[in-house]
Sequence to fold (227 residues):
Amino acid sequence: MKIPSTVVLMRKTEQDFNDPDDKWSGLHNFGNMLLQKMVSLKLISADIIDSNPSVVILELSLFVENKYGGKVGSEIHLEGWNNRSAYLEDRTIHVYFEWDKDFGTPGAVLVHNPYESEFYLKTITLQDVPGRGPIHFLCNSWVYQNQGSRIFFSNKAYLLRDTPEALRKCREEELRMLRGNGEGKLEEWDRVYDNAVYNDLGRLPVLGGSHEYPYPRRGRTGRPILG
Fold:
């Protein structure tokens, strides 16, 4: 059966539409429209482990990879969203996810942006999943092409020990990405919550991370150390 759902999103602010560097993004997105590329979404089950993982061939060796753990549903697309129209206010798009009882409870959703320019995803709401009621995904995040498929979890919170096995891989991978590895320059689309010292204050000492100046600290950017 099909589950009626809504996706609330927005493209950019008014200032971004006047950005001269965005012209190449416009050409790229126009090409995507000609190729009929659209934002896609897939549900991931919180109850059912995927018993048919994808098969990947690498350097003549055969690897079986189950990247997400939970069963992944059919792909749907955001019809009517081209990421170039001036949607400066919330835009609600109505979609229908395919679901059956063998899928179980949707616990996460994969979102892929094929466009070079990002969009702001606010919420995804499954109106009424039989026996489970409405399921809400509070996203409030920019979705970039460079990120690959973004994953968003439903609003149901779990203690670590109570995390469904079908979602454990997803949550561990998301946490790994948010922690980062402390290396390299972070780009606009990175979501790493990593700390660094203030090391670009001219003649002032480096602030943060030392016994004398333990604070303050800032979000790490990967800029070279100057202090």
In short: DSSP finds three helices and 13 strands in the chain. The chain has two domains: 2-179, 194-227. Residues 194-227 form one domain.
